[in-house]
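pinned: reference chain
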Amino acid sequence: MRIAISGPPGSGKTTICMLVANKLECDYVLVGQIFRQMAMERGMELDVFSRLAEEDETIDRELDRRMLAIAAEKEDIVLEGRLTGALLKAKKIPVFAAYVDASEDVRAERIARRETKSVEEILRDMRQREKSEKKRYLAYYGIDPADKLTYDLWLDSTDVSADQVADEIVMYAKKAEAENAHQSEEGR
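pinned: its structure tokens
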């Protein structure tokens, strides 16, 4: 079963991805790790590489190409990334796509704790990043990563533990897989 977990920064998607993969006993891929690898390959600091990506669309396209190649190669995998679910659906790669969201304040607080910055600074950076990403994704692929119609499941992690969200994703993904298998059998 291929599962993609998308969502904005601070929504918990990375933690949830690892939990889902653990529950399903399969591998996972974090798109952020691929991005970091690309920065290392160019000998660049992550923040410098991130700024370059805002001006050089080939960076996002290469990141997406690498993620798509991994996704196409493995069926039993959980992939995490801001655009992953929407992009896999757009490329017709079979996937159960879940979107995890949380209130902006909660997301900013989570990131602030992780990065030891002020919530106000994180909110400003987060809003700028999300605006930039939405603009790029619409320009490159015609995809709004927050379009609810793209996803099989939309969850709010504001007041719910990552483990509970992971359990829901596993439950709904297994249900969808069983329904797809049943439909395939009926079509024979």
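why pinned: The chain has a mean pLDDT of 91. The CA atoms of residues 15 and 34 lie 16 Å apart.
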